[in-house]
Automatic annotation (TrEMBL):
Name of this chain's protein: Short-chain dehydrogenase
Residue intervals passing through the bilayer: none
GO biological-process terms attached to the record: steroid metabolic process
The organism's place on the tree of life at top rank: Bacteria
One Pfam family it belongs to: adh_short
SUPFAM superfamilies tied to this protein: NAD(P)-binding Rossmann-fold domains (SSF51735)
GO molecular function: oxidoreductase activity
Alphabetical list of InterPro entries matching this protein: NAD(P)-bd_dom_sf (IPR036291), SDR_fam (IPR002347)
Family note: Belongs to the short-chain dehydrogenases/reductases (SDR) family.
Amino acid sequence: MVTMTQAQRKAVLITGAAGGIGTATARQLDNLGFQIFAGVRKFSDGERLQREISAQITPVELDITDEASIIQAVETISEAVGEKGLYGLVNNAGMIVEGPIELVPIKEVRKQFDVNVIGHIAVTQVFLPLLRKAQGHIVNISAPTGQVAFPYLGVLSASKAALEFMTDALRSELRPFKISVSIVEPGAMRTEIFKKSAVSAQQFRQGLPGELLKLYAPALDAVAKASANQYMDSPDVVGTSIAHALISRHPKTRYLAGRGTGMISLLRLLPDRMRDGLLLRALGVATN
Ligand SMILES: NC(=O)c1ccc[n+]([C@@H]2O[C@H](COP(=O)([O-])OP(=O)(O)OC[C@H]3O[C@@H](n4cnc5c(N)ncnc54)[C@H](OP(=O)(O)O)[C@@H]3O)[C@@H](O)[C@H]2O)c1
């Protein structure tokens, strides 16, 4: 059997690799023979990935909102890959700030944009010299909320829409360097992201006036019920699209990964008020 040495294996950095889609992608790309740098915030998560997936995975401590952490990561990876450069950057790290816009503290809004938008720009900027060496590939993980604003996920939607526009511009800007840029929009996936956002929303709402919370209580109950009933795919589905974006000679600009994503893109074409009504009805929110 022919095996590739570290020097021959194409290097890919996946941010937010500690769980969900990031871990699923690390597993798939490792199986395909890539050299994986797994961005994790806790080193113990990296050790777990080595145990559970492969000892060949290299964990890299990386908080994408922390400049010093990004610089340390690029130095580590640059030293490891040398002249072959970085073949792939998967900007996957992300989080959800949920709830009606009126109820989200500005601190949380900033956090949402720091992680889902600014962090990806910061990471992309510093890794571009390494990506240029390999004529590499960038894959940004967005969401259907980047195409259609979901009520009660307005802050998340705004962040993913910003990521979509950033990605579209980057694709054109990097075309002369033969660096491909793709965006992947996963449907609902079975990961911890929703649980984390619910816990965080519960915490930040504790500081809000009861009268204000009461105004939104019926809508939030309906949304919680609708969310509990939604179908969730395995995050492996997303890993497959990411692998295609990295391997194909003609990567797509946009991948819809998972059930229902095509329908959501179609909603974009509807007149605004018709789309608003359909979304509220789907969530079971009464409007009169
Ligand atoms: N699950 C879905 O249904 C779905 C649908 C559409 C799009 N997406 C997108 O897919 C991506 C992955 O989400 P997931 O569902 O796999 O969620 P997840 O399991 O919660 O994974 C998110 C990862 O991002 C990491 N992360 C959060 N903040 C970070 C920061 N400041 N710096 C570095 N890493 C950070 C988390 O690290 P810790 O473990 O240390 O917190 C975690 O490893 C996100 O961009 C999300 O918006 C998910």
